[in-house]
Amino acid sequence: MAKSAVRVLITGASSGIGRALALAYAREGASLVLLGRDAERLEAAARACLAAGAGEAETHVADVRDREAMACIVQSAHEKRPIDILVANAGVATGLSPSQLLETPEAVRAMLKINVEGVFNTVEPAILSMCARKSGRIAIVGSMAGVRALPHSPAYCAAKACVHMWADSLRAQLAAHGVHVALIVPGYVKTPMSARTIVKTPLSARTLLKRSASAGVESWQPSAMSDEEAARIIKNGLDRRRNVIAFPRYMYWAMRLFSLLPAALVDGVMRQFPAEVPETPERENS
């Protein structure tokens, strides 16, 4: 392994964006530290990365909710060789069906622990080490749902808005110490998680319908892209040290605009697109 090869730690690396991003760095000979909860899928991802050219692909079966375990993994990985890029990617979605009024409290709290505390648990152990050597990049994966609230995913939107604010604060605080923080704001990406979400369009927009991967249900996911394409955009943005890596750009600016318009107007439009976001199987005490 070449000494100059970048060292990258990625959570949620066994599937979706995390796996695709690991493969993108593997093709450049990166030293990878891959974290996930499914041992079999994680090992398969590591083998694929080694086959693609990774200098190494170290794996850790870990739950980002476990603060002590995450601190141990991140610090030991850094001691072995300093982490150049840390990607806090692990997350789960949860939401409401059109007939639901209230999300299951236990599912909501489990999602918050993964999507919020899990990000903190991943990033915090790396901050002091990166600042000490005045080098390093931190990437925090948010969502378009964190830019403007969606009625079908109240808790998920709240979680992503939280990490958006945290990323913005960290970026301002750590820049003086030579550490760059990037917020990643994806739209629809074709992953196992997004395939479970069904957003229906009004009859007047039938021409925009796509067929969902699940049971042929009509689903509208504008500008949905593959995880490979998402990984390419993210890697390019990180290479260029962009502060916000949002894609597709038109959706990001549309959501920013929606946040400035009268709430009643935007809420009325949102209600024209009924959605069904399956509840996460995670539970608070799991």
From TrEMBL:
A single GO molecular function term of this UniProt record: oxidoreductase activity
Domain Ketoreductase, residue spans: 6-192
InterPro entries to which the protein is assigned, alphabetical: KR_dom, NAD(P)-bd_dom_sf, SDR_fam
SUPFAM superfamilies, per the entry: NAD(P)-binding Rossmann-fold domains (SSF51735)
Keyword Oxidoreductase applies: yes
Keyword Oxidoreductase: yes
One Pfam assignment: adh_short
Gene3D superfamilies: NAD(P)-binding Rossmann-like Domain (3.40.50.720)
Keywords: Oxidoreductase
Coiled coil: none
A GO CC annotation given for this chain: membrane
PANTHER family in the record: DEHYDROGENASE/REDUCTASE SDR FAMILY MEMBER 7B, DEHYDROGENASE_REDUCTASE SDR FAMILY MEMBER 7B
Family membership: Belongs to the short-chain dehydrogenases/reductases (SDR) family.
Protein name in the entry: SDR family oxidoreductase
Species for this entry: Methylocystis hirsuta
